[in-house]
Amino acid sequence: MNTDLILDIITAICLIVGSLMSLAAAVGLVRFPDLLTRLHAGTKPQIFGIMLLLLAVGLHKRSWEDVPVLILIMVLQMITVPISGHMMTRSGYRNKHFRKTDLRHDDLRRLVDEVEGR
Asked: CA gyration radius for the chain?
């Protein structure tokens, strides 16, 4: 076995697993019953899937010139996806799009009550 064949096999595995993780995130967004589980499904596997897909692209290109762009894409995704999930969760919390029994500990209730003047 030569190095190119091994890198091609690793690239294929990264593409397949990354695609499956992204598919799992999409299915979770559609199938899960409430806001909190949907947001968890939309953020956690999506980041891992994108990381594997970018790794596959880097392995396929086999060029150091593309590494800074791939790292930039990954860093931006790792920053924006959790922040957008957090903001959507806060919006859903304020609009009461979840069951209170889903929360074990409610740290945000006191802050929301203060802002709303209750």
From this structure: 19
Query: What is the distance of C-alpha 14 from the center of its chain?
Result: 16
Task: Tokens for 87, please give them.
Answer: 């903001």
C-alpha 114: how far from chain center: 31
Place of tokens 């593409």: 15
State the DSSP H helix or E strand holding residue 69, giving kind and residue range, or none if neither. Answer: helix 67-94
Which pLDDT tens digit goes with each residue over 5-25?
Answer: 999 999 999 999 999 999 999
Choice among 4-8, 48-52, 103-107 with the minimum mean pLDDT: 103-107
Tell me the two tokens of residue 108: 């945000």
Tokens of 30: 């559609």
Q: Pick from 49, 62, 1: which is nearest to 23 by CA?
A: 49
- Whether 25 contacts 45, CB under 8 Å: yes
